[in-house]
Design brief:
Number of domains: 3
Bound molecules: flavin-adenine dinucleotide
CATH class of the largest domain: Alpha Beta
Shape: globular
CATH topology of the largest domain: FAD/NAD(P)-binding domain
Strand order of the largest sheet: 3-2-1-4-16
Oligomer: single chain
Largest sheet: 5 strands, parallel
Helix content: 25-40%
Radius of gyration: 23 Å
């Protein structure tokens, strides 16, 4: 820590976003970077607390105070070295993480927390620009072979860690490009896909083999995988979207959010999509069902496509704007969040239950809904009741279902490996991240359930540790 009074004398300054009128014309990243000197001043605000709760709250246990100190001194190389020791991909979390570290920053008790996520992004972008991030292939190979199935952040972190440990790793991906939801899901305006390509080039130069367009269980059999490799990690995500099986669900114009978002990612990449398959919000009344981050990504995309109106509806009540007493510091609070996409324009409704879709000529035209209330019963369980007489209709010629993901896809792959799923429909693992099948590990959303990029990276790293120990003991 440089000046011990900096947390009093320097205010939090966020990087901010490009102006709305400019950014909704394109799919480039919306967030800006502060100049280096301003960023270093922000790191000076870190108090180097005796007990760094930020470190405790971070799923990958980033050592915040240490790299804030290096950043504040302008020693970007040292800041990068400390940061990358606990996080394989700070360029993903620096852009996408909701930053539980900031919610538990001690400064946040009575002031604005340190801009930890933005500082992380600045350090890793500086590191790439300055050439600190170079391929470092392992000095020797162990002769052990590992297959990692699925190339989202969990699979990438697992494959990278094992490759660095000297194992020979093949990363299999069903899609035609690496990244999981980072590639096809998260909009380009939050994560430019060249950021993924830049990292993959480093991993490949370090000796990682990547095979895209290979769906394990279909294009290559489970038996062949088991015969070929000493260990296998399943990082296949929790990709079964939650549906809304109400009257009218089968009408045209009602889509899962991830199909809509993926298509836009492909268009940005330059793929041709036949008109008959295009899902577009242009000139449409769009209703997004689901008030979370995926819903917000749909709002941002629909605005860029030129929607006539956008309404985002949520079944639950609006979260509070400030930390409520039952979610005290340093816990993660569920607060009302206005994303950059919300700022770009949409109507947000809470406590709304969708009842029915109706149509003209087979294409959705209206959505019928009702206001609801939530009350705790005698056991403290919240129960929903409809408000009598509060039924209403919304014009809707594009409906996007963004209600989360229920579990891993129950595919041939799961049956082929003989996995017994847990009660939530995901892949159970032990403390080594091994499933009930010897030598078969799982990580990320596939075992944890739909979660966050930072948790996927954590689990990928931990599964790699489990696999390394398993291989070393044989
Ligand atoms: C639209 C959207 C926005 C999001 N925004 C954020 C955000 O801002 N911040 C955040 O922290 N989190 C966000 N998330 C959540 C985050 O993306 C996920 O938690 C994370 O990607 C999970 O990583 P994973 O590696 O476990 O799985 P995934 O990213 O789902 O990757 C799994 C991969 O496995 C592949 N696969 C599946 N089966 C096979 C097979 N049989 N053979 C070969 N490959 C296979 C899939 O094609 C996929 O590429 C978002 C999610 C979505 C959908």
């Amino acid at each position: 820590m440089g000046d011990p009074r900096s947390f009093i004398t320097i205010n939090r300054v966020d990087s901010g976003y490009r102006p709305v009128t400019e950014r909704i014309q394109d799919y480039d990243e919306v967030e800006r970077l502060l100049p280096d000197d301003a960023r270093m001043r922000q790191a000076l605000r870190c108090m180097d607390c005796g007990v760094p709760f930020c470190h405790w709250a971070c799923p990958v246990s980033n050592i915040m105070p240490e790299w804030q100190a290096k950043l504040a001194q302008g020693n970007w190389q040292a800041a990068y070295d400390i940061l990358q020791a606990t996080n394989n991909f700070p360029e993903f979390t620096g852009r996408l993480c909701p930053a539980p570290c900031e919610a538990s920053c001690v400064l946040g008790i009575n002031d604005d927390p340190v801009t930890i996520r933005e500082n992380e992004l600045a350090v890793i972008e500086h590191a790439f620009e300055a050439g600190y991030v170079q391929p470092k292939p392992p000095a020797r190979r162990t002769g052990k072979k590992v297959a990692v199935i699925g190339s989202g952040p969990a699979g990438l972190a697992c494959a990278d860690s094992l490759n660095k440990a000297g194992h020979t790793v093949v990363l299999y991906e069903a899609a035609d490009a690496v990244g999981g939801y980072l590639r096809f899901g998260v909009p380009d305006f939050k994560l430019d896909k060249r950021i993924i390509d830049r990292r993959i080039a480093i991993l490949q130069a370090e000796g990682l083999t990547v095979q895209t367009g290979v769906k394990v269980g279909e294009d290559i059999s489970v038996d062949d995988i088991q015969a070929e490799y000493n260990a296998v990690c399943l990082a296949i995500g929790a990709r079964q979207p939650r549906d809304l099986p109400i009257e009218g669900r089968d009408l045209d114009g009602i889509h899962f959010a991830v199909d809509y978002l993926t298509q836009q990612n492909r268009l940005v990449r330059g793929d041709e999509i036949p008109d008959a398959e295009r899902i577009t919000a242009a000139h449409k009344h769009v209703v997004v069902i689901g008030g979370g981050d995926t819903g917000s990504d749909c709002v941002g995309t629909a605005n860029r496509q030129g929607a006539q109106s956008i309404t985002q509806i949520e079944l639950l009540p609006a979260p509070p704007e400030i930390r409520p007493a039952d979610q005290p510091w340093p816990l993660w609070p569920k607060l009302y969040k206005t994303s950059s996409s919300h700022e770009e324009g949409c109507k947000r409704l809470f406590n709304i239950a969708t009842q029915q879709f109706s149509a003209t000529d087979g294409h959705v035209q209206k959505l019928s809904a009702v206001h609801v209330e939530w009350h705790a019963d005698d056991n403290g369980q919240y129960r929903m009741t409809e408000v009598p007489g509060s039924e209403f209709e919304l014009e809707a010629d594009l409906v996007l279902l963004a209600m989360g993901f229920v579990h891993v896809e129950h595919s041939e792959l799961i049956a082929g490996f003989g996995i017994e799923l847990n009660a939530r429909g995901n892949i159970p693992v032990d403390e080594r991240y091994m499933t009930g099948v010897d030598g078969l590990f799982a990580a990320g959303d596939a075992s944890r359930g739909a979660s966050l990029v930072v948790w996927a990276i954590h689990e990928g790293r931990e599964a790699a540790r489990g696999i390394h120990d398993y291989l070393s003991s044989r």
